[in-house]
């Protein structure tokens, strides 16, 4: 479909030959880096998204390296996920949860699972990464047993 992505266009784009003056590192999701979830994501449903950090390396100050062998200056920029407040109706909890903060990633995962209740019940804790989600899951299991 996208013929412009192949051939001559990608010839110079595939391999990076040198670093630019201001090199920006790629963002990795927090759970793949091994960082614990942020406090903001514990009372919301963030899915795979979380607060993240971009590192910008300034190589123009004294050249590429100092006498210790490290880049001279790092500039860190903290990025935040886009968060929406939504109301969710839960059949398992028999209530409506008002103003729950969710990210688009969590909403896409809810669509894949089928509903809000299925997302909470069937998502493993490693992927849910939310204290509020875990408490809702425990409460749903308690209602189903009793």
UniProtKB/TrEMBL annotation:
Which Gene Ontology molecular-function terms are recorded? structural constituent of ribosome
Assigned GO CC terms: mitochondrial large ribosomal subunit
Q: Which residues fall in a coiled-coil region?
A: none
Q: Which domain of life is it from?
A: Eukaryota
Q: Which InterPro entries match?
A: Ribosomal_bL28
What is the protein named? 39S ribosomal protein L28, mitochondrial
């Amino acid at each position: 479909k996208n013929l412009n992505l192949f051939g001559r266009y990608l010839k110079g784009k595939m391999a990076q030959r040198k670093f630019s003056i201001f090199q920006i590192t790629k963002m990795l999701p927090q759970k793949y880096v091994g960082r614990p979830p942020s406090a903001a994501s514990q009372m919301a449903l963030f899915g795979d998204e979380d607060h993240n950090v971009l590192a910008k390396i300034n190589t123009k100050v004294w050249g590429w390296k100092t006498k210790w062998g490290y880049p001279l200056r790092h500039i860190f920029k903290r990025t935040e996920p886009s968060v929406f407040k939504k109301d969710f109706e839960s059949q398992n909890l028999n209530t409506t949860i008002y103003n729950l903060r969710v990210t688009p990633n969590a909403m896409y995962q809810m669509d894949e699972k089928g509903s809000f209740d299925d997302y909470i019940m069937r998502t493993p804790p490693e992927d849910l990464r939310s204290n509020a989600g875990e408490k809702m899951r425990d409460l749903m299991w308690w209602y189903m047993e009793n």
